[in-house]
Design goal:
heterodimer; A: 259 residues; alpha/beta; 6-stranded mixed sheet; 4-stranded antiparallel sheet; 9 helices; B: 219 residues; mainly alpha; 8 helices
């Protein structure tokens, strides 16, 4: 691992009332590392991504992005995280792709991809469109740039969502079960785009996935989450080939049986 | 004969001028209601600590009669040095009163936006201003056009309340004609017919606007 982790979770906890979703998580992710998070539902794996994207506040601990803290622990009892300017500065390094795509339905594929570059980065329309055109081409949808999300298949919508996130040039990309809402025959095209992204760009990637085959082939490291903790982690060959933990074995057995 | 056609045609021009005042009051009042209502709804979400204050304000306005609010602006505000002419006071009161109702309509519209739209906006690092302007409001408005339209018609039908502070709108003009000529049948009937016609026309306009918005958004 390189000297400075890209992302560092230090003793991070998340609770909803009496329910502890994440319990003192420590996790370092190196620059350019591809990490897959697997585990049963309710194990807190999606929460890890959502906290890093600042969609969830954290109750304890600190998250560092390139050694800068992302949020502070709130002292004044309010739900809004403190220092929005600071958070937005750090957040600019992170992009996210969602299970349900979350494209803006009233905008074309192109408009979805230029919205943030123009309003947040202050790019000129022509410049933003050129960048978006390249990205839509990368995800194989150059011909669909003037289509609205409702005119696209699920796989195509998700590819636009990936292009939209990339348009902000993040250093870290989060993928939250990005193929779970797709018909089986559309999963491949989305995974292919993620593979390409991993090959061609120097991105740190963190993904929650149920695609064990993809996690095994694509990631540098796999973390198995259970009951709000990392139960076991390691290179995919080790974790899938010779899991040490009993819970990991049970989970993998159940998943591979089903899949 | 109860109905006098000659008298009807005699008073028509006077009532027509008054009708313009009623329509002006409606349009100005609704412009205030629609924009102030939107501001209230947006601020309530964008600046969470204002939530309680705005709720109380909205509840206060909705729970007191419009007539009292009109009187308050016209007769009480001058005691605090704010002197408004009758038309301004009336339009302001109507606008603020309906802003309270409109803000609830906008709020319902915002509540109907899928959570994922807000989350995608955060993930793209959009400011909350941009999120409202480009993502939330364009999606929230089309479905609430019918509800806003209902309030436009309701507001229009409340403009006769302005006669209470002697704004020369339709109702006040009809009352003056009645007290001068001792004939109330024609002026009051004409006023009623005018409101009926305008309400039907506005309802039709709102329906066509609704249709146009649906065609634009549903693809």
């Amino acid at each position: 691992m390189s000297e400075q982790p890209m992302v560092r979770f230090v003793n991070v906890s998340k609770r909803y009332g009496p329910l502890t979703v994440l319990d003192g998580l420590d996790l370092d992710i190196a620059r350019g590392e591809k990490v897959s998070i697997i585990g049963p539902s309710g194990s807190g794996k999606t929460t890890v991504l959502r906290m890093l994207m600042t969609l969830e506040t954290i109750n304890d601990g600190v998250i560092y992005v390139e050694d800068q803290p992302l949020t502070h622990v709130e002292k004044n009892g309010k739900l809004m995280p403190a220092g929005l300017d600071h958070i937005r500065k750090i957040r600019a390094k992170i992009g996210m792709v969602f299970q349900s795509f979350n494209l803006f339905p009233h905008m074309t594929a192109m408009a979805n991809c230029i919205e943030a570059p123009m309003t947040v980065l202050g790019m000129k329309r022509a410049e933003a469109e050129a960048r978006a055109a390249d990205l839509l081409d990368m995800v194989g949808l150059a011909a669909k740039k003037d289509h609205y999300p409702s005119q696209l298949s699920g796989g195509q919508q998700q590819r636009v969502a990936i292009a939209r996130a990339c348009a902000m040039r993040p250093k870290i990309m989060l993928f939250d079960e990005v193929t779970s809402a797709l018909d089986p025959e559309l999963v491949g095209e989305v995974l292919e785009v993620i593979r390409k992204l991993g090959r061609e760009h120097d991105l740190t990637m963190l993904m929650v996935t149920h695609q064990m085959g993809f996690a095994k082939e694509f990631s540098d490291r796999v973390c198995f989450f259970d009951k709000g903790k990392i139960c076991e982690q390691g290179p995919p060959k080790e974790l899938f080939g010779a899991p040490k933990n009993e819970r990991t074995r049970q989970f993998l057995h159940a998943v591979l049986e089903a899949g | 004969m109860i109905w006098d056609w000659a008298f009807t045609f005699e008073i028509l021009p006077v009532l027509a001028r008054a009708a313009i005042v009623s329509i002006e009051a409606t349009l100005l009042g609704f412009a205030i209601a629609a924009s102030l209502g939107l501001v209230l709804a947006v601020v309530r979400i964008a600046v969470p600590w204002t939530g309680w204050t705005i709720s109380v304000l909205v509840e206060l306005i909705r729970s007191t009669p419009l007539l009292i609010q009109i009187f308050f602006l016209y007769f009480v505000f001058p005691k605090f040095g704010v002197v408004l002419d009758a038309f301004t006071a009336g339009v302001l009161a109507i606008g603020i009163h309906y802003a309270a109702y409109c803000s609830e309509v906008y709020r319902a519209g915002f509540d109907n936006i899928h959570r994922g739209q807000w989350e995608a906006s955060i993930a793209l690092n959009l400011s909350s201003w941009t999120t409202f302007r480009d993502v939330i409001i364009p999606q929230a408005i089309p479905p609430i056009v019918p509800a806003l339209g209902n309030y436009l018609v309701a507001l229009f039908k409340e403009t006769p309340l302005l006669s209470a502070i002697a704004v020369l709108e339709l109702m006040q003009t009809a009352k003056i004609i009645g007290s001068e000529t001792f004939r109330y049948t024609e002026p009051i009937t004409l006023v009623g017919l005018f409101f009926l016609a305008m309400s039907l026309v506005s309802a039709a306009l709102i329906r066509s606007l609704e249709g146009a918005l649906n065609r634009r958004t549903v693809r």
